[in-house]
Write a structure and sequence with these properties.
Strand content: 15-25%
CATH architecture: 3-Layer(aba) Sandwich
Radius of gyration: 16 Å
CATH topology: Rossmann fold
CATH class: Alpha Beta
Helix content: 25-40%
Order of helices and strands: EHEEHEEHEHEHEHEH
Distance between the termini: 11 Å
Strand order of the largest sheet: 4-2-6-1-7-8-9
Shape: globular
CATH superfamily: P-loop containing nucleotide triphosphate hydrolases
Number of domains: 1
Number of helices: 7
Mean pLDDT: 96
Low-confidence stretches: none
Largest sheet: 7 strands, parallel
Length: 202
């Protein structure tokens, strides 16, 4: 199964969840576009314990930590969704991590969300909880629904906020796949713990 991991914004926890789901499914991992360093591929790989997951090289590694459309312009690279194909892999499971949120531009006409829409694969939405996150999450949900993108479910990341979670689930209609607490340390044991929880909901 292929899954596309996206979020309500930058630094919402996509890479951490990508490591968790890769551990749960012993899936391969691919980040099509990396803008800036350190590389998310290195972060995810450093958290995996299983020996089956392969880290597939990015199609583009851009030097500037910025929106892909701008980072590509600086590096004199042209990004177009049609030039990206899901890589062949012997693994039946592949986790693909997007850049930033769903409407992060990759050029003047296309956005990150165009990738799973082109490939017709389900999205898992990562939402971190903060003041204003209900609005940001439901706006993201509206765009996913407007485009008819398949959504497997939502992952909440950070300190628990039951009131926010309840209303997001109510109005999105999505199921909650996992709740990731505000962990003091992120390490192999933590990733394995959440991977075991996630397996029950996939």
């Amino acid at each position: 199964m292929n899954y596309f991991i996206t979020a309500i914004g930058t630094d919402s926890g996509k890479s951490l969840f990508s490591a968790i789901i890769c551990e749960a499914l012993e899936a391969d991992y691919w980040k099509p576009i990396q803008a800036g360093y350190p590389r998310d591929t290195d972060y995810v790989g450093g958290l995996l314990s299983n020996l089956k997951s392969d880290l597939i090289p990015e199609k583009y590694v851009l030097n500037t930590p910025a929106s892909p459309h701008y980072a590509a312009e600086i590096d004199n690279v042209k990004l177009e969704v049609m030039d990206f194909d899901i890589p062949d892999t012997d693994n039946e499971n592949l986790v693909i991590e997007g850049a930033g949120g769903v409407l992060v531009p990759i050029n003047d006409q296309e956005f990150v969300i165009d990738f799973p829409q082109q490939w017709n694969i389900p999205v898992i939405l990562v939402a971190n909880l903060y003041l204003g996150s209900i609005n940001h999450t439901l706006l993201t949900v509206n765009e996913l629904q407007r485009r008819g993108v398949k959504v497997k479910g939502i992952v909440f990341n950070g300190p628990s906020n039951p009131a926010s979670e309840e209303i997001i689930l109510k109005y999105s209609g999505y199921s909650c796949l996992l709740r990731i607490a505000d962990e003091k340390d992120i390490n192999h044991a933590v990733v394995r713990k959440y991977a075991a929880e996630l397996k029950k909901n996939l």
